[in-house]
Design brief:
Layout: E1 3-6, H1 10-15, H2 17-23, H3 29-40, E2 45-51, E3 54-66, E4 70-80, H4 89-103, E5 108-111, H5 118-126
Parallel strand pairs: 4-5
Antiparallel strand pairs: 1-2, 2-3, 3-4
């Protein structure tokens, strides 16, 4: 049976690295816990779905108030282990996140996804998320 919980201690955060690094390959294992903890101080939370003793899906998110969308549940990161895809884990995670957003009184559920991630986009569309804007980026 799969369970979803929030990573609150360093050991839980560290266990999420192998899956998170599939989405964020530039992350460094030795820096991961500290980076997540810095973001946690800013309101970031890291959820993980564990199935049969292994973490198979992770999601980083935050709740923020925005002029454009009101109280918004923003998903920074969402990834399922490549070896565990198409088994319902991603759907379980996103539905859990949406329920959490509703419970928190959010009026919007948002995420960005890299343009190269076409399979993820198809998944998001099946989950009834819609493309509503473009995200622009300038490395500094």
């Amino acid at each position: 049976m799969a369970t979803i919980q929030i990573a609150t201690i360093p050991e839980e955060i560290s266990r999420c690295f192998a899956v998170m690094s599939q989405l964020r390959p530039l992350l460094v294992a030795g820096e991961f816990v500290a980076r997540v903890q810095v973001q946690q101080a800013e309101g970031y939370q890291l959820a993980f779905l564990e199935h049969e003793g292994a973490i198979v899906s992770v999601a980083g998110f935050r709740i923020q108030n925005m002029l454009s969308s009101g109280k918004t549940f923003y998903v920074d990161d969402l990834v399922t282990d490549a070896a565990a895809r198409s088994q319902g884990h991603g759907e379980a995670m996103i539905q859990w996140l949406i329920a959490l957003a509703r419970e928190a009184g959010c009026v919007s559920f948002d995420l960005d996804s890299g343009t190269q991630r076409q399979e993820a986009h198809a998944f998001y569309l099946r989950q009834r998320l819609r493309i509503t804007s473009f995200h622009f980026h300038l490395p500094l």
